[in-house]
Structure prediction request, 120 residues.
Amino acid sequence: MKTRIAAVSLVSAALVAGSAAAAGAAPAVHTKPSLTLSASSAHPKRGATVTFTGRTRGLREGSTVTLQVKEGTHWKSLPATAAVRHDRYRITDRFRGTGVEVFRAVDGRTASKPVAVRVR
Prediction:
């Protein structure tokens, strides 16, 4: 009887130790940083204020998100920025010209998909 109890205790201890080692050796799950972007209006009038909102994943709280506009083949940073709060951000901008403008949000090397806005 004592032998059986000793064998069960030994096997149980080995299982507990093995599962703890496996849990400690499991790689940490890292999410690739990402940004989304959407405009409050896709067809605003010239002079109107548009609010750009988005969600973040993998960015630190308080990091700065900058709005960029596409000029030809290059992206130009606008002075419009926002801080990340609770994985969200909000940037407002006013349009002075007309036509189609393409925007994106960036934080370091992370950029959102472009969003087109047609200003009337």
Summary: The mean pLDDT is 84.
